[in-house]
Amino acid sequence: MNSLTDNSLMLQVKAGQVDKMGLLFERYHRPLLAFFYHATSHATGSEDLVQTVFYRMLKYRHTFSGEGEFRTWMYHLARNVLADAAKKEKPAKYHQDVADWAEKIGGGPTADASLQKNQEVDLLHRALGQLSADAREVLVLSRFQELKYEQIATLLNTTAGAVKVRAHRALGQLKDIYMKMENGSKVH
Amino acid sequence: MEAKFINCEQVREGLMDWLANEMPADEAQAVEAHLAQCPDCRREQAAVWQLWQAMGNLPVPEPSEQMRPRFYSMLAEFQAAEQRKQQWSVAALVQKLRDWWQPAYAMRLAYGLALLVVGLAAGYGLKARVDAPGAATQQPLAAVPAPAENAQQAQLLALLANPSAVQRLRAVSYAEEVAPTNERVVGALLSTLYQDPNVNVRLATLEVLAGLADDPTVRQGLVRALAQQDSPLVQSAMADVMVQLQERRSVRGLRKLLRQDNLNEQVKTKIEQSIQSLSHDRSAPADASTPSTYHENNDHTDSALDTSVAA
Ligand SMILES: [Zn+2]
C-alpha cells in the first residue's frame, strides 16, 4: 500500500498519527482556499474557513471510512463549513471585498490591457456571486476544484447526469448575468 | 470504424463533458465534426468555452504568511489535547483489561492452547535433551543482541522504550500485528513484562506473550516473570495463563507468590486453585516425556531469581 496516498494518510491520521495531517494540509490548503474564495469572495475569511475544515477533519477523523475518496469526504466537510458560515454571517458581508481585491490587483502602474482584463475578471467574479449558492457550488466544484462529475455526484448525493444538467444550467445563468452586467456597465 | 454523426441536441447534451474534458475521444471527434458544419452550435460552444476559460483564469488569493503557522499550531494543540485525553482514559483501559481476563477470555485462551500444549510437551523433551544444561536459553533474554529484522520491529523496539505508558501500550498492541518471532523483540516484550512500572502495560504484554507461548523462550520467560509480579491484577492474570498453558514449572513460582505478605485474598485463592490444578495433572500422560534435566535447569533459574528478588 502506498502510504502517501490521500486515503492512506487520512487513515493514518484516524489511527492516531495526527501529524500526518500536515501533508494533507500541504496538498489541499490552496484548493480549499480557492473553494471558499470563489464561494464567498472573502479572502481573509476564506483562510479561517480552510482552518475550520482541517480542524473538523481532525475532530471527525473517525467518520472517514477509507472506502470513498478522501477528496469527496473533505469537500463534504468543506460544504458543511460553508453552510455554517453562511448561517452565521450576513449574506451582504460576502463579496464585499471583491472591490478591495480588484483594486489590489488593479492597483499600481498597470497597462490598459491588463486593467481592461481586471475589469472583466471583476465582472465575472461579481456575476458568480449573483448565482444562487447551489448553482455556484456546482460550477466551483467542477471548474475550480476539478472534481469529476462522478465525484461531485457522490458529494451532492445525486447522479453524474443530474450534476451535468445542473452545471449546464448554472453556466447559462452565469452567462446571462455576465452579459447583463457588461451591457449595464457599457451603458453606464 | 464508422465516424459517429450527432445532432445539435446531442452536442448540447455533451457540452459539460466536452468542457471538463471528460468526453471519450470518439465522441469528441463527432462533436468537432458537427461544429465544423453547424454555425449555430459553433457560436454557442465558443461563447460557453470563453466563459469557461475566463472562470479558469479567475485569480485566487495567495495564502497569507500566517496561514501555515496557524494550521501547524492548531495541529500541535490538537495533538496535545488528544494525548491528555488518552492519559485520562487509562482508567477505562484497566477496566477493559480486567474484562479480558474474565472467564470468556480464559475460555478463548484455553480453546486455542489446549491442542498446542499437547504438542509442546513432546517437543519440549526433545529440545531439552539436545540443549546442554545451562545452555543459551538460560541466559537473560534481553541480553541476546539479535538485530531487529525489519523496520516494523525496529519501530516496535523504540516504542517499547518510550517513556509514555500510552506509547508503550500502543507498542504492545502493535506487537500482536508484527508477530514478533525475532529474539530481540521477544526479549524486549519479556523485559517489559518483568519491569514495566505500568500495570496496564504489563497486562497487555502478558496477553501478547501468552499468545506466543509456543515459543519455549516465551514460556520460560513467563514462568520467570511470575515471582516478580506484585500487582494483584497481574498476579491473577499470570496464574490464569499458567493454568491455561498447563505450565507445571510455574508451581514453584506460584508457591513463592503465596508466601508474599500482602497478597490479595482473591489472588491467594486463585493461585491455590491454580497450583492444585497444575499439580492434579501431574500424572497426565504428557508429563511422562518431560525429562528431569529440564526441571533441574529450571530450578537453577528459579533460585537465581530468588536472590535477585530478595536483593
Ligand atoms: Zn448544431
From TrEMBL, chain B:
InterPro entries: Anti_sigma_zinc_sf, ARM-like, ARM-type_fold, Znf_put. It holds the Pfam family zf-HC2. It comes from the Bacteria. Transmembrane segments: none annotated. Gene3D superfamilies: Anti-sigma factor, zinc-finger domain, Leucine-rich Repeat Variant. This is HEAT repeat domain-containing protein.
